[in-house]
Amino acid sequence: MPEKRVTVASKVGLHARPAATVAKAAAAQPVAVKIAKAGGDPVAAGSVLNLMTLAAGYGDEVIISAEGEGAEAAVDAIAELVATDLDA
Protein backbone atom coordinates (compact mmCIF):
# COMPACT_ATOMS: atom_id res chain seq x y z
CA MET A 1 0.00 0.00 0.00
CA PRO A 2 1.61 3.28 -1.08
CA GLU A 3 1.84 6.00 1.51
CA LYS A 4 3.50 9.36 1.75
CA ARG A 5 4.33 11.64 4.68
CA VAL A 6 3.84 15.34 4.02
CA THR A 7 3.72 18.54 6.02
CA VAL A 8 0.52 20.61 5.96
CA ALA A 9 1.44 23.85 4.17
CA SER A 10 -1.82 25.82 4.45
CA LYS A 11 -1.64 28.48 7.17
CA VAL A 12 -5.08 27.46 8.49
CA GLY A 13 -4.22 23.76 8.35
CA LEU A 14 -6.69 21.29 6.86
CA HIS A 15 -9.66 23.46 7.74
CA ALA A 16 -12.37 25.18 5.69
CA ARG A 17 -11.26 25.92 2.10
CA PRO A 18 -8.11 23.73 2.09
CA ALA A 19 -10.10 20.81 3.53
CA ALA A 20 -12.77 21.23 0.85
CA THR A 21 -10.16 21.31 -1.91
CA VAL A 22 -8.39 18.20 -0.62
CA ALA A 23 -11.66 16.32 -0.04
CA LYS A 24 -12.92 17.09 -3.54
CA ALA A 25 -9.65 15.88 -5.10
CA ALA A 26 -9.57 12.75 -2.91
CA ALA A 27 -13.18 11.87 -3.76
CA ALA A 28 -12.33 12.14 -7.47
CA GLN A 29 -9.57 9.52 -7.22
CA PRO A 30 -10.21 5.98 -8.54
CA VAL A 31 -9.33 4.52 -5.11
CA ALA A 32 -10.21 5.41 -1.53
CA VAL A 33 -7.57 7.75 -0.10
CA LYS A 34 -6.95 7.85 3.63
CA ILE A 35 -5.17 10.45 5.72
CA ALA A 36 -3.91 10.40 9.30
CA LYS A 37 -1.91 12.57 11.63
CA ALA A 38 1.30 10.88 12.74
CA GLY A 39 0.31 8.38 15.43
CA GLY A 40 -3.42 8.75 14.74
CA ASP A 41 -6.08 6.67 13.06
CA PRO A 42 -6.60 7.17 9.32
CA VAL A 43 -9.82 8.74 8.04
CA ALA A 44 -11.33 8.96 4.57
CA ALA A 45 -9.73 11.93 2.81
CA GLY A 46 -12.78 12.41 0.60
CA SER A 47 -14.80 13.88 3.48
CA VAL A 48 -14.44 17.51 4.57
CA LEU A 49 -15.79 16.61 8.01
CA ASN A 50 -13.19 13.84 8.43
CA LEU A 51 -10.39 16.18 7.38
CA MET A 52 -11.51 18.84 9.84
CA THR A 53 -11.79 16.35 12.73
CA LEU A 54 -8.12 15.46 12.19
CA ALA A 55 -7.27 18.92 13.52
CA ALA A 56 -4.18 18.92 11.29
CA GLY A 57 -2.66 22.36 11.60
CA TYR A 58 0.00 24.26 9.71
CA GLY A 59 3.30 22.37 9.95
CA ASP A 60 1.76 19.10 11.15
CA GLU A 61 2.88 15.92 9.46
CA VAL A 62 0.18 13.73 7.92
CA ILE A 63 0.35 10.31 6.29
CA ILE A 64 -1.60 9.81 3.07
CA SER A 65 -2.31 6.29 1.87
CA ALA A 66 -4.43 4.36 -0.61
CA GLU A 67 -4.84 0.81 -1.81
CA GLY A 68 -5.62 -0.66 -5.20
CA GLU A 69 -4.94 0.11 -8.84
CA GLY A 70 -3.92 3.73 -9.22
CA ALA A 71 -3.14 4.13 -5.52
CA GLU A 72 0.34 5.55 -6.03
CA ALA A 73 -0.88 8.31 -8.36
CA ALA A 74 -3.77 9.09 -6.00
CA VAL A 75 -1.42 9.39 -3.01
CA ASP A 76 0.93 11.62 -5.00
CA ALA A 77 -1.92 13.91 -6.13
CA ILE A 78 -3.32 14.39 -2.61
CA ALA A 79 0.14 14.75 -1.07
CA GLU A 80 0.94 17.53 -3.54
CA LEU A 81 -2.22 19.40 -2.52
CA VAL A 82 -1.56 19.04 1.22
CA ALA A 83 2.01 20.24 0.74
CA THR A 84 0.73 23.40 -1.04
CA ASP A 85 -0.56 26.52 0.72
CA LEU A 86 -4.15 26.25 -0.50
CA ASP A 87 -5.19 29.37 1.38
CA ALA A 88 -2.75 31.68 -0.42
UniProtKB/TrEMBL annotation:
General (non sugar-specific) component of the phosphoenolpyruvate-dependent sugar phosphotransferase system (sugar PTS). This major carbohydrate active-transport system catalyzes the phosphorylation of incoming sugar substrates concomitantly with their translocation across the cell membrane. The phosphoryl group from phosphoenolpyruvate (PEP) is transferred to the phosphoryl carrier protein HPr by enzyme I. Phospho-HPr then transfers it to the PTS EIIA domain. One of its GO terms (biological process) is phosphoenolpyruvate-dependent sugar phosphotransferase system. Keywords: Cytoplasm, Kinase, Phosphotransferase system, Transferase. It is found in: Cytoplasm. Residues 1-88 form the HPr domain. GO terms for molecular function: kinase activity. It comes from Amycolatopsis regifaucium. InterPro entries: HPr, HPr-like, HPr-like_sf, PTS_HPr_His_P_site. Pfam families: PTS-HPr. This is Phosphocarrier protein HPr. NCBIfam families: PTS_HPr_family. GO terms for cellular component: cytoplasm. It comes from the Bacteria.
